[in-house]
């Protein structure tokens, strides 16, 4: 009898993507195989469909319940299908999910991802829905088996949870207070990944530069970055996301002085208005934020800085919004993730009386997007005629077979579309590295339409080759902490 299949549908941030890799690893350890082809269309043909949810924005609710409604008719035609809902929405709405979608078999929270296989089996045996939401972290996701999508790039969690109390954010309620992993455990995982061919890692946390507060070392994150520089074969190190209130000069120095820490920083601004920042309970002001950027650029003149910005926070006046626009002009971000304020039940901001009319928020949002795009394009045009180092990637940006393009990331994380050779001997693989001359810049990417130079075959590219040679249905990389073995 063939193995049961699964499909994981992920909403939200990098932490959710990381968790979904662990969910996939757990299911494969339990004997399931990943659904392929048509089975992946909203899990229509899979035996187990898992929704790993986000609760940060209102449209996440709408998407989830809309998709769960669609799944009811699919499940009715597929005897034995199981549907599970996990992640932040499950942690928040455990009872509501069951009342709105009683055909869901399992609801599990952010703290007990590892329970999913057991809950699915219990739901099958008892023919009854299983809901298990625990309030404290049971084990770090990184201690669970994982099925990574990339053989050459990986996420590594340094902490889970957040100690901040931003009035717009529900994450601390859903992921709990910050819990830090020990540095030795993090570095052991990175070494294990590098031994398997990974050459780029991204350190993950809700507030990575608060790392170490739990065990009393305020310089722990800078030390961790420097320790990454000692790992042979580790080509690129990135991290997300820091908080301006905790961003210290020792981290800037570690970034600048550690060869494999990339000249890239994602630093959430949220608002350029000091009054709005105070109302958001963000314990920094625009002057401090810009000061951090100035020191980063002094240490790393070519660093690319990206950010998050919320438009239309309750009470935001036109003057407040103009203050945000002015900070954007001074900061000259290479990109910005811009959001219209979303009212989230359970947060202090949701109870504020001075909510901004939708049409005002939309108009401000469009002005901000235009300004961000204009500045990003100006910054990208500075690269025309320059040579950048590109690590090629799988599924990164557009693919255009007619023009032989591949995509990848520059050291500063800019997306680069590169015209490559037809000759397999000269064509890069995902994970390989080459120098590309930028011939044209667009607002959100760079183009190189001339031959690459200095193609370097990497261990990451070798790992990609090895992964693609696996039998159909087992592509990807299944791994775990020492002692975990791929199921036969």
TrEMBL record:
Any one Pfam family here would be Radical_SAM
Catalyses which reaction?
N(6)-dimethylallyladenosine(37) in tRNA + (sulfur carrier)-SH + AH2 + 2 S-adenosyl-L-methionine = 2-methylsulfanyl-N(6)-dimethylallyladenosine(37) in tRNA + (sulfur carrier)-H + 5'-deoxyadenosine + L-methionine + A + S-adenosyl-L-homocysteine + 2 H(+)
Assign the protein's first listed, main location to one coarse class: cytoplasm
Q: Which UniProt keywords apply?
A: 4Fe-4S, Cytoplasm, Iron, Iron-sulfur, Metal-binding, S-adenosyl-L-methionine, Transferase, tRNA processing
Name the job this protein performs: Catalyzes the methylthiolation of N6-(dimethylallyl)adenosine (i(6)A), leading to the formation of 2-methylthio-N6-(dimethylallyl)adenosine (ms(2)i(6)A) at position 37 in tRNAs that read codons beginning with uridine.
Q: Which family does it belong to?
A: Belongs to the methylthiotransferase family. MiaB subfamily.
Write down the PROSITE patterns for this protein, in alphabetical order.
Answer: MTTASE_N, MTTASE_RADICAL, RADICAL_SAM
* Name the UniProt record assigns to this protein: tRNA-2-methylthio-N(6)-dimethylallyladenosine synthase
**What does the entry list as the binding residues for [4Fe-4S] cluster 2?**
162, 166, 169
> What domain of life does the native source organism fall in?
Bacteria
Kindly state what the record says about how the cofactor is bound.
Binds 2 [4Fe-4S] clusters. One cluster is coordinated with 3 cysteines and an exchangeable S-adenosyl-L-methionine.
Its gene name is: miaB
Name the top EC class: transferase
Gene Ontology terms, cellular component aspect?
A: cytosol
Q: Which CDD domains match?
A: Radical_SAM
List, separated by semicolons, the cofactors it needs.
Answer: [4Fe-4S] cluster
Q: Which InterPro entries match?
A: Elp3/MiaA/NifB-like_rSAM, Methylthiotransferase, Methylthiotransferase_CS, Methylthiotransferase_N, Methylthiotransferase_N_sf, MiaB_methiolase, rSAM, rSAM_horseshoe
Radical SAM core domain segment(s): 148-379
Sequence segments annotated as region (Disordered): 465-488
Stated EC number for the protein is 2.8.4.3
Any one Gene Ontology molecular-function term assigned to this protein's record: tRNA-2-methylthio-N(6)-dimethylallyladenosine(37) synthase activity
Domain MTTase N-terminal residue range list:
4-125
């Amino acid at each position: 009898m063939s193995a049961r299949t699964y499909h994981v549908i992920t909403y939200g941030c990098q932490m959710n993507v990381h968790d979904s890799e662990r969910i996939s690893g757990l299911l494969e350890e339990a004997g399931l195989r990943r659904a392929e082809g048509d089975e992946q269309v909203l899990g229509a043909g899979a035996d187990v469909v898992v929704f790993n949810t986000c609760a940060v924005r209102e449209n996440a609710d709408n998407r989830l319940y809309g998709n769960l409604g669609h799944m009811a008719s699919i499940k009715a035609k597929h005897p034995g299908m199981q549907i599970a809902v996990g992640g932040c929405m499950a942690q928040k709405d455990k009872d509501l999910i069951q009342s709105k979608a009683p055909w869901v078999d399992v609801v599990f929270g952010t703290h007990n991802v590892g329970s999913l296989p057991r809950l699915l089996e219990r739901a099958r045996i008892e023919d009854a829905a299983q809901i298990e939401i625990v309030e404290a972290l049971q084990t770090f996701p990184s201690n669970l088996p994982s099925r990574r999508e990339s053989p050459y790039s990986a996420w590594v969690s340094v902490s889970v949870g957040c100690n901040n109390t931003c009035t717009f954010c529900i994450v601390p309620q859903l992921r709990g207070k910050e819990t830090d992993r020990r540095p030795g455990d993090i570095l052991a995982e990175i070494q294990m990944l590098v031994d398997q061919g990974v050459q780029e890692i991204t350190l993950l946390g809700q507030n990575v530069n608060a790392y170490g507060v739990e065990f009393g070392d305020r310089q722990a994150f800078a030390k961790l970055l420097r320790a990454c520089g000692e790992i042979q074969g580790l080509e690129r190190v990135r991290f997300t996301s820091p908080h301006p209130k905790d961003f210290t000069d020792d981290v800037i120095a570690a970034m600048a002085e550690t060869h494999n820490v990339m000249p890239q920083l994602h630093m959430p601004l949220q608002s350029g208005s000091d009054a709005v920042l105070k109302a958001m309970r963000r314990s920094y002001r625009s002057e401090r934020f810009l000061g951090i950027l100035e020191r980063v650029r002094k240490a790393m003149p070519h660093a690319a800085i990206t950010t998050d910005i919320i438009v239309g926070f309750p009470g935001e006046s036109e003057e407040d919004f103009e203050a945000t626009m002015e900070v954007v002009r001074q900061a000259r971000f290479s990109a910005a993730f811009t959001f219209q304020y979303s009212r989230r039940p359970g947060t202090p901001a949701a109870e504020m009386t001075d909510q901004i009319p939708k049409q005002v928020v939309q108009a401000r949002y469009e002005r901000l997007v235009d300004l961000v795009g204009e500045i990003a394009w100006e910054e990208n045009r500075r690269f025309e005629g320059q040579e950048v180092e590109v690590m090629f990637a799988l599924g990164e940006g557009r693919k255009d077979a007619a023009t032989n393009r591949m995509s990848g990331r520059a050291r500063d994380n800019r997306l680069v579309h590169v015209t490559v050779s037809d000759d397999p001997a000269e064509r890069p693989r995902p994970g390989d590295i080459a120098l590309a001359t930028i011939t044209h810049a667009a607002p959100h990417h760079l183009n190189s339409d001339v031959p690459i130079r200095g193609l370097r075959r990497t261990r990451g590219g070798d790992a990609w080759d090895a992964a693609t040679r696996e039998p159909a249905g087992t592509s990807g990389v299944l791994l775990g902490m020492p002692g975990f073995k791929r199921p036969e």
